[in-house]
Amino acid sequence: MRDHDTEPVSREIIALFGPTGVGKTTIAIALAARLRARGEQPVAVSADALQLYAGIELLTAAPTAAEQAVLEHRLVSCVALDQRVSVAEYARLAHVEIDDLLEAGATPIVVGGTGLYLRAALSDLDLRPPPPLAVRERWMGELEARGPEALHGVLSERAPWAAEQIAPGDRHRIVRALELEEIGALTPPPERSQLWSDVVRHPTRLIGLAMERKALYARIDARVDQIVAAGAREQVAAAEQAGVSATARKALGFQELIDGDIEALKRHTRNYARRQLTWLRKLPNVELIDVTGRSPDDVAAALQ
Questions:
Q1: How does residue 157 score in pLDDT terms, banded at 50, 70 and 90?
Q2: How confident is the model at residue 124 (pLDDT cuts 50, 70, 90)?
Q3: Per-residue pLDDT reduced to its tens digit, 291-300
Q4: What is the chain's mean pLDDT, rounded?
Q5: How far apart are CA 302 and CA 191, in angstroms?
Q6: pTM for this one?
Q7: In this predicted model, what pLDDT tens digit does every residue of 225-251 receive, in sequence order?
Q8: How many CB atoms lie within 10 A of CB 242?
Q9: 62, CA 20 to 30 Å: which among 149, 150, 152, 301?
């Protein structure tokens, strides 16, 4: 994906992807310091579905005020909790930020752990249309009346291939699939994953940050304890009381903190990190960097 013969380094996007807890923010900050030393102007652009929301920063591991003072971050804490943001809306925001930075001669460092949002920031997505409001309301009513398992059965009759890919209890995906089927927009997945494409909008260096799983899981457990001690439960409870959109509520750990189930939060976060690592290793054209036992500055030096 790198093309140094046709594009100067300052015009190249750097994309850092890795599982939750791997240390993406601290590595981005260390890398930014080295880029500045050679005359570049790095600015981070978040590619995280939930770091957009203001009010749940502890839960989403958004960069702190101190971290943002060292490295400017765009698309962080910029959306109210009661708003819903689709991946298409995020893509528009990210494209504007990245294009503006490149136009100004800056170096965007796209930082994220949400695969679809990483691709949305770097590529053009082929997104399915939203359903008419009446269709959405009808299927939501069916969901409440009949339950997800019954609607999964309906989906199995209409589109067996789609039902095979969705768990019977996954309320959101079942309803979404039935909406798309009704409006004729439910089609088999493309041969290539929507999560990534090697066709990007600008020259991009894609760096995958990996870590030995035992070490990563220990970091995740420690971080959960840290955010709870820092007030994550109180932050989420305040968000719940103030009113939070269905999109923001999807933040990993939101419901677990509402329920006070810290062990479930650790377990679900470890499971999510495992899926991120699996997907990371399948990315084409990715530079895999094992960061186990390495300092952020050591990793940043290896990336130069």
A1: very high
A2: confident
A3: 999 999 999 9
A4: 89
A5: 34
A6: 0.77
A7: 999 999 999 999 999 999 999 889 889
A8: 11
A9: 301
Q: Which of 253, 269, 239 is nearest to 77 (CA)?
A: 239
State the CATH class of domain 9-126+193-302.
alpha beta
- Report d(CA 265, CA 121) in Å as an integer: 28
Say if residue 110's pLDDT is above 60.
yes
Give per-residue pLDDT as tens, 42-78.
Answer: 999 999 989 999 999 999 999 999 999 999 999 999 9
- Name the nearest CA neighbour of 91 among 116, 73, 61: 116
CATH code of the domain occupying 133-182: 1.10.20.140
Domain boundaries, the chain: 9-126+193-302, 133-182
Question: 3-class secondary structure for the chain?
Answer: CCCCCCCCHHHCEEEEECCCCCCHHHHHHHHHHHHHHCCCCEEEEECCCCCCECCCHHHHCCCCHHHHHHCCEECCCCECCCCCCCHHHHHHHHHHHHHHHHHCCCEEEEEECCHHHHHHHHCCCCCCCCCCHHHHHHHHHHHHHHCHHHHHHHHHHHCHHHHCCCCCCCHHHHHHHHHHHHCCCCCCCCCCCCCCCCCCCCCEEEEEEECCHHHHHHHHHHHHHHHHHHCHHHHHHHHHHHCCCHHHHCCCCHHHHHHCCHHHHHHHHHHHHHHHHHHHCCCCCCEEEECCCCCHHHHHHHCC
Sign of the C-alpha dihedral computed for residues 93, 99, 102 and 103 taken in this order? negative
Same fold, 9-126+193-302 and 133-182: no
